[in-house]
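Office hours follow-up: a student asked to see two folded examples consecutively, so here they are.
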Amino acid sequence: MSEKTMRVNQRTSLGRLQQIFAALVRRKRLREAIRDLQSLDDNMLNDIGIGRGDIEWIVDGGRRNSRSL
């Protein structure tokens, strides 16, 4: 394998690791937001216009086909 090919592979691998890390951080933040909202009582959720059953959907940006967080 040439040196140029090795450098390209290293950059590709590093980029992929960064993507994975960013996805893990995003998922952790989403779970934390869900947990925080679920800790509120129904009256507080109602005050901010959120139904308990809508928490995950709202936190995930309203994506209907999102995977479970």
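And the second, which I mentioned at the end of office hours:
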Amino acid sequence: MKRIFALILTGMTALLLAGCGQVFNQKQQVKDAAQTTVTSINTELDTLKVINDTTATFPSTLQRALKTNPKEDLRQLDGPVKQLMDKRDKAYTNLNSADTNLVQAQRTLTKAANQSDTTLPKKALAALTSSLKLTTLDHKTLIAYYKEVTHAEQALFDQLQDDPTKADINTALSQINQYYSTLGQQIDVSLANLNTALDQAKTLTKQLD
């Protein structure tokens, strides 16, 4: 009888410890995901600034380069234009890498938000996951605009190889500035929503301590 009782007690203890372990593990997973969110968003904010700044300075950089090397392929020539665009390309790659990490963290947070775990700060979790839905949409839109910008730039470089007039160049730059303006507007939207999500991720992290 004592042996049976001991076995029952051992089983109940094991179940209790397992339950506690699951609660602890989920809480730690959510905390890790929130911290990943903070790190990823900070990276995205930095890279978006680089993309915005390099895009804004591209027209004037190109015009100066054309005065010095009017017959060269400035996208390939190791000079200010190529350096500027390489810097932006690197930022774009880092942006996408950070967004991949952010999406993975979002999945963990969304899964936790949909569970009935009373140990988690549900309001903070819900607020963050809602904001991350917006940042995901923002990123997809941003990528679409960015690709259109690169297509327009390639068309411009192709045109420069056909010995265009100064008027042709000014017209092409005016057209590409319209793409840059649209991209810049989307970057502003992304920055606003990312900063909101960043504050919410920090709040969630504090509440999980």
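Two things to take away from it. The radius of gyration is 26 Å. The chain has a mean pLDDT of 88.
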